[in-house]
Amino acid sequence: MSFDIQKIRKDFPILSRKVNGYPLVYLDNAATSQKPQQVIDCIVDYYSNYNANIHRGVHTLSQEATDAYESARKKIQTHFNAKEAYEIIFTAGTTHGINLVANGFSEILKKGDEIIVSAMEHHSNIVPWQMLCEKTGAILKVIPMNEEGVLVFSEYEKLLSKKTKLVFVNHISNALGTINPIVEIIEKAHEVGAAVLVDGAQACSHIKPDLQRLDVDFYVTSAHKMCGPTGVGILYMKEEWGNKLPPYQGGGEMIAEVTFEKTTYAGLPHKFEAGTPNICGGIAFGAAIDYLNTIGFEAIEKHENELLKYATEKLLKIDGLKIYGTGPDKTSVVSFNIEGIHPYDIGAIVDKLGIAVRTGHHCAQPIMDFYKIPGTVRASFAFYNTLEEVDALVTAVKKAKMMLS
Amino acid sequence: MTIEAIQEELIDEFSMFDDWMQRYEYMIELGKSLPLIDENLKTDDKLIKGCQSKVWLNSEMKNGKIIFTADSDAIITKGIIAVLVRVFSNQKPQAILDANTDFIDEIGLKEHLSPTRANGLVSMIKQMKMYALAYQTQLNN
Ligand SMILES: Cc1ncc(COP(=O)(O)O)c(C=O)c1O
Fold first, then answer.
1. CA-CA distance, A139 to A129, in Å (whole number)?
2. Closest C-alpha among B41, B100, B38, B36 to residue B70
3. Any CB–CB contact under 8 A between B2 and chain A?
4. Cβ–Cβ of A403/B54 closer than 8 Å?
5. Quick check: A103 and A218 in contact, CB under 8 A?
6. A249 vs A299, more confident
7. Distance between CA A396 and CA B7 in Å, rounded?
8. A341 contacts in chain B (CB < 8 Å)
9. Which end of chain B, N or C, is surrounded by fewer C-beta atoms within 10 Å?
10. Which regions of chain A carry the CATH code 3.40.640.10?
11. Rounded CA separation B102/B8 (Å)
12. Share of chain A above pLDDT 90, in %
């Protein structure tokens, strides 16, 4: 299929709205993506035609809803090339998936065991590991990054040892756009017998990970950053880990048999899916994946790379502008500051011109501390953004600079 | 001048502008006239929480009136504080406690009132009123 940007933009109703009198230029895709009509229709269809609880009733609606939910799981399995559909656990999102794994490891880790995380994690996702270490007496080690915003691989290798039980790293950094070398990270971790959890929240809208080929133990992501709804995501876990980890929450769905003496847990994935899930969300996540695949990840990558290259070139022409995250492998995220100007000021002015960017520390305080800056302005592009929108951003930033200096 | 009179004055001044850019430019100008907090008072306990940019606010009591000084590392934020300092500084604590803040809407800064803007306009007003309350309580004792 050829990549017809104007046709694609028509799929997203929100892209035709105005903000402060200007056409919306949405460049906050790393926070959440916009939703195409196909996904919106799927949600409407679910609630209009076959809303019912799943896995419980024998009635037709419940069957239809269960089938749709389970077929979404299969779709996700195929998309990510997981070996089995039951290795895909529906969650409320990336954060939930991370907590689920951290909780599971609280029964596995012993005092003196080590967990490795990277210096460029979403800071809220460092918290579950800190909590886990407090609880178990395990020790948290951090892979440092360099000035380019790239992890120092040799330091990672030094941190690994027989004591390492788990490595947690994001596939792509939300603040910088750096793509981490997860293939090598996973390989090295496995050499010492450690498991690896990859946070794919920022990755899956740009690239299509092949989970079996990566040989990753756990992989988490959120639907809302890949054209799907909020409040739903997945945790992939290899079957052997699924059997090893204890359940996270107790409730309906996750049990095989209950008496007051003893409960037998259900098998995967239900063991980790207590209670009524986000049924509609799961189904719409499937629709979002279908949508992305009709556009095609090759085409998405090509277009986004073009946007990134163009934006980088244009922005760097602005005097005093510095980009953070300049490694060779990155996705369409440009995090920047202009010398002597606070990122908040730039954000406030470009917003007035209809441009949505993010300002602040992007939940990656350690990265900001590393660069000794209060934050950055972050423009993050999606496949539905255009070169003209990059121009609008550049013009707006220039205007802001003029007003502020 | 009373708080109401200053607010009227600000509404008047801002009504001269017909677009947001001129309003912002004026606010940036006002920011430059902000009575700056003493550098050695820029300590963490003077920082206002809930701002994306740093805001330091100091208060002292002189002749029964509160004098505010402040600073920020962001220019627009500085302009916003300058507006607030002009309204609330050099006033009696009770007058600050009684004042309403509808004028912010009228001078076209309403968007900064939204807590999601994270620029802390709401927190700044709250902090000023907290200082006023503390001084008022002292006066009553
Ligand atoms: C790298 C990364 N991890 C995790 C998250 C959290 O995702 P969610 O809020 O969907 O749980 C985000 C979202 O901002 C992210 O960018």
1. 9
2. B36
3. no
4. no
5. no
6. A299
7. 31
8. 75
9. C
10. 40-293
11. 11
12. 87
Which residue among B24, B75, B118 sits closest to A342, beta carbon to beta carbon? B75
The predicted-structure confidence for A86-128, as pLDDT tens digits, reads as follows 999 999 999 999 999 999 999 999 999 999 999 999 988 899 9
Q: For residue A354, is it left (φ>0), alpha (ψ between -120 and 50) or beta? A: left
Comparing A34 with A274, the larger pLDDT belongs to A34
Pocket test for ligand 1, best of A96, A100, A363 (most atoms within 8 A of CB): A363
| DSSP secondary structure code for residue A226 in this structure | G
C-alpha torsion angle, residues A285, A289, A291, A296 (rounded to 10): 160
Helices marked H in A233-371: 239-244, 279-295, 297-316, 343-352, 365-371
* Ligand 1 near A332 CB (within 6 A): no
| Residue from A244, A239, A236, A249 nearest A210 by CA | A236
Nearest in space to A341 (alpha carbons), one of B25, B71, B50, B73: B73
For residue B20, what is the domain's CATH number? Answer: 3.90.1010.10
Res B52 pLDDT > 80: no
> Which tokens in the block code for residue A141?
């080690």
* Parent domain of B17: 3-140
Out of B24, B53, B77, name the one closest to residue A403 (CB): B24
The answer to whether the beta carbons of residues A358 and A30 sit under 8 Å apart is yes
Distances (CA, A) of A114 to A108, A141, A189, B102: 12, 7, 12, 55
- CA nearest A171: which of A142, A144, A151, A148? A151
Q: What angle do CA A125, A130, A133 make, to 5 degrees?
A: 135
- Residue B51 annotated as catalytic: yes
Where do you find CATH 3.90.1150.10 in chain A? 5-30+296-404
Look at chain A and count its residues.
405
From start to end of A96-222, where are the E strands? Answer: 114-118, 139-143, 164-170, 195-199, 218-222
Beta-carbon separation of B75 and A345 below 8 A: yes
CATH number of A40-293: 3.40.640.10
State the Cα–Cα distance between residues A194 and A105, nearest whole angstrom.
Answer: 12
| CATH 3.90.1150.10 for the A5-30+296-404 domain, yes or no | yes
Q: Domain count for chain B, please give it.
A: 1
pTM confidence score: 0.91
Q: How many CB atoms lie within 10 A of CB B141?
A: 5
Cβ atoms of A256 and A264 within 8 Å: the answer is yes
> Is the beta carbon of A335 within 6 A of some atom in ligand 1?
no
What is the spatial distance between Cα A350 and Cα A345, in angstroms, rounded to a whole number? 9
